[in-house]
Specification:
- By secondary structure, the protein is mainly beta.
- The chain contains no helices and 2 strands.
- It has strands spanning 23-30, 47-54.
- Strands 1-2 form a two-stranded antiparallel ribbon.
């Protein structure tokens, strides 16, 4: 909610990570409408990008044993 005279407001975004794979993600958010007739959406500033990094809990990771034959050095 915006209070009278404010030009910004806080936003909370919750990401359910249970379907994510390990890695980095970008979550684009775009404001398309507002219920207040006094709020104007600037088309040049209506989007923002949120970076999300997901590293699973160590207890959910499975160790992988590699032998010497499974590795290679590339120049």
């Amino acid at each position: 909610l915006f209070t009278a005279g404010s030009k910004s407001a806080s936003l909370t975004v919750t990401v359910k990570r249970n379907k994510l794979s390990y890695g980095n993600y970008v979550l684009p958010l775009k404001m398309t409408q507002c219920s207040s007739p006094y709020f104007e959406i600037n088309p040049n500033k209506q989007s923002c990008l949120f970076g999300i990094s997901y590293v699973p809990d160590e207890s959910k990771l499975h160790p992988v044993t590699l032998s010497r034959d499974m590795t290679a050095i590339h120049p």
